[in-house]
């Protein structure tokens, strides 16, 4: 935990020091700004939510995007987030164990599908049985998020283990720091195959869908949101409610997420 510094000062320091793969606007936070730490896979959706919220309320949203584990650890070290959006509940439990979540604020806001994708030049059998993945890979690389701290990687490992494929493909794996880095690698043709969320495939230019993993092959993909304890101001509370509102859920749906009826 960091003591003796103002919220604004610490945010400026954080923005200067975060890794290059974390997308954070270089701005100065006012007391009414809403600082949102969100999973990399929600980048476009949360940016759209922030824009719509600012138009509606006048309160700016400052968003930081990275792997959920990276962000959770930053919050645990004292990063001044107001709201955390994680791609799974495990990193919420990590913060809750440290009593860093506002009591009763943890909610599920969306879901997703897990997909196997390939570079545009890859030859995919039609139909393709995902259990034939080792044959399809051959000596090629399979990019996934690092299961140690990237939810997309955790889901990918679970799916591969359930289907009896993990031990057969683990030597082919390239582990990356967040799901957008995984998408970038396959979209540039630097890895022939990858496992990403279905929503991320919408952003690809040179990537094709190979298969959707069965929903029962991995834990349910749950995007969780919570307010950070001590930072529950008026603007934060408004944003938290906005994400769950009919308008907020529609924005998530438009970006490909599976949402819930209000």
Automatic annotation (TrEMBL):
The keyword Magnesium does not apply. InterPro entries: ModA, ModA/WtpA. It comes from the Bacteria. It holds the Pfam family SBP_bac_11. Residues 1-29 form the signal peptide. Transmembrane segments: none annotated. Keywords: Metal-binding, Signal. Belongs to the bacterial solute-binding protein ModA family. PANTHER family: MOLYBDATE-BINDING PERIPLASMIC PROTEIN, MOLYBDATE-BINDING PROTEIN MODA. This is Molybdate ABC transporter substrate-binding protein. The gene is modA.
